[in-house]
Design a protein that fits this description.
The protein is built from 8 helices and 9 strands. It is an alpha/beta fold and about 220 residues long. The longest helix is centred in the middle third of the chain and has 23 residues, at about 105-125.
């Protein structure tokens, strides 16, 4: 599996290369988004990792330009910023998920494996006769990731927090929160306030039983 890494920090590029090489994958690194996009257009990639803060071209602009050329390749954003508004901006432009710095090797490997499996499912659906597959339900919402979250909520049979869903599915919490917000708007999921001994209530999320999951 060819993994394209864009990060201006040489130590992070080296660390990520060592992690992916150890697993048996083929990492290719670039120090900024402009060079990384050129490399992607010339040689392709199975997965792309993009740092948020980079010189010449930041992560957001890099994601925008990648999506102009390819709507399917999984893009994981590397960032220390956990703010939901930042996640929403990236997801709106086509990012798939997030890997928070400092990067933990097991978490990153699992996340890359997950998105490669989802990409393989897209390819399978597209190659099936008489099935017209659209990669995105709406801007920032991938049909397969949406179905993945829906099926977990149905199978779970009980309400779950964002953190629980994130841990079980191997998705970043900002990604899970974005999809839950969409499902609430669609009337498929209901938030249930869970009152704590101290602090503000913490929502749990439950599938509305009468709804059917999205079928890719």
């Amino acid at each position: 599996m060819r993994i394209l890494i864009m990060d201006d920090d040489q130590s992070i590029r080296y660390m990520l290369s060592e992690i992916f090489t150890f697993v048996g994958w083929d990492p290719v690194t670039y120090s900024n988004g402009r060079e990384g996009i050129k490399g992607f257009l010339n040689h392709g990639a199975d997965i792309i990792l993009v740092d948020y803060h980079m010189p010449e071209m930041d992560g957001l602009e890099t994601v925008q330009l990648i999506r102009k050329h390819d709507q399917q390749v999984p893009i994981l954003v590397l960032t220390v910023d956990e703010r939901q508004e930042i996640a929403d901006r990236f997801l709106d432009e086509g990012a798939t998920d997030f890997a928070l710095k400092p990067v933990k090797a097991p978490d990153l490997i699992a996340r890359v494996q997950l998105h490669k499996r989802l990409l393989d499912m897209i390819i399978t659906y597209k190659s099936t006769p008489k099935i017209q597959y659209e990669a995105f339900v709406t801007k920032g919402i991938s049909k397969l990731t949406l179905s993945y979250i829906e099926r977990y909520l149905i199978a779970c049979g009980q309400s779950s927090t964002v953190e629980e869903i994130s841990q079980e599915l191997g998705l970043a919490t900002p990604t899970v929160y974005r999809y839950l917000t969409y499902l609430i708007q669609e009337g498929k999921v209901q938030p249930i306030p869970s009152y704590q001994k101290t602090g503000r209530p913490k929502n749990r999320y439950s599938w509305i039983q009468s709804e059917s999951p999205t079928t890719p």
